[in-house]
Amino acid sequence: MRYTQEGREAKNMKMLIIIILVILGLYWLIDHTAPLPLNHEQFGLYQHGVHRIVGVVFLVAAGLVWWMWKAKKTE
Fold first, then answer.
1. Counted domains in the chain
2. Tens digits of per-residue pLDDT, 2-36?
3. Per-residue model confidence (pLDDT) at position 38
4. Which parts of the chain fold into alpha helices (H)?
5. pLDDT band per the 50, 70, 90 thresholds, residue 60
6. Cα–Cα distance between 30 and 19 in angstroms, integer?
7. Could you list the residue ranges that cross the membrane (predicted)?
8. Range 49-60 average pLDDT
9. By C-alpha distance, which of 68, 56, 47, 49 is closest to 24?
10. Higher pLDDT among residues 1 and 37, named by residue
11. Is the pLDDT of residue 73 over 80?
């Protein structure tokens, strides 16, 4: 399958969006725990569970974008 310049740019943009969403999701899930620097316990912000929810939302959003992209690609 050959891609036009616009098709390649759209594909690259979709992959970039997915990668950014996954990185953001992992950051919000993992970076705010105790052994890592700049965590909330270091600044005295204990029980900040909303970040876990936001992290899961970002990961689910990445999965949905990927799934919608694959479903549209097969049509």
1. 1
2. 667 777 787 888 899 999 999 989 888 876 666 76
3. 64
4. 5-30, 50-74
5. very high
6. 16
7. 12-30, 50-69
8. 87
9. 56
10. 37
11. no
- Look at residue 70 and tell me if it is in a domain: yes
Of 11, 4, 6, 9, residue with least CA distance to 70: 11
1 in a domain, yes or no?
Answer: no
Q: How far is the C-alpha of 73 from the C-alpha of 33, rounded, in Å?
A: 38
Residue with tokens 């996954």: 22
> What is the CB neighbour count within 10 angstroms for residue 31?
14
**Location of structure tokens 């997915």:** 18
Residue numbers of the domain that contains 20: 11-74
Answer whether residue 17 is part of any domain. yes
Q: 3 CB contacts (<8 Å, ≥6 apart)?
A: 11
5, part of any domain: no
What tokens were used for 27?
A: 């950051």
